[in-house]
Amino acid sequence: GFVEFDDVNGKVLTYSAADKIYKVWDLKNYNHLYSIHDNNIHEIKISPGIMLLIYHKSASGGHVPLKILSIDNGDVLQSFKHQIHRSRKIDFIEQFNEKLLIKQEYENLQIVDVRTGDRTDVGSSHFMTPSAFIFLYENQLFLTFRHRNVAVWNFRGEKVTTFEDHTLWHPDCNTNNIYITSQQDLIISYCKQSDGSELGSINVSSILNGGSLARISARQGNARERMALEDVTALFYNEERNEIYTGNKDGRVHIWTN
Hints:
Order of helices and strands: EEEEEEEEEEEEEEEEEEEEHEEE
Largest sheet: 4 strands, antiparallel
């Protein structure tokens, strides 16, 4: 089972593997709101105001049943079937408001507007399956992470930002080492240095234009800074205090401030 906290909607989603029941709770008072009992559900995605229920592929393998529910009361807002290639593995199905992103192995990315049915295809050579997404609700954009590289896309399937100095340290995109500001205009991450140094650095970049705004690296001969930038496993930016907090494998927390 699992517990997922949804700050945007003020809800908690839980799943009991023993009972095979999903439950939605109010985050303010933890009152139980409703339950979903359906053995055919493969995955649930949460967006502002709604939930996407992704079901197992049909017996014929030709489509995936999908339902959109109101996050507040569980009412079904829309139910439809998305046609897929029978022999292709589904890489991902993601939802961002009314947009549905669907990608199968070796196939184009499909961006579907669930309200109108309009579909945009993005070539598989242009958009390759990422290891993680971050949706930027304020800017109607989304970030993708693949092989240490970060890119910003719009929902027409166009890459709108390439970063000049933001190569992630971890190839598998450990999002514990990535922070997006509340205005969704800056990304702060633990990165590899362009000079090939064995130490990482903390890089600050503009999401909108990819420009490098700041970089924290260990100064020559400073043993404390070198220790702080080894094996960083977590990063957080306190926007009120303008401080960056990092933690590494030895259990130490370091504070970076002007």
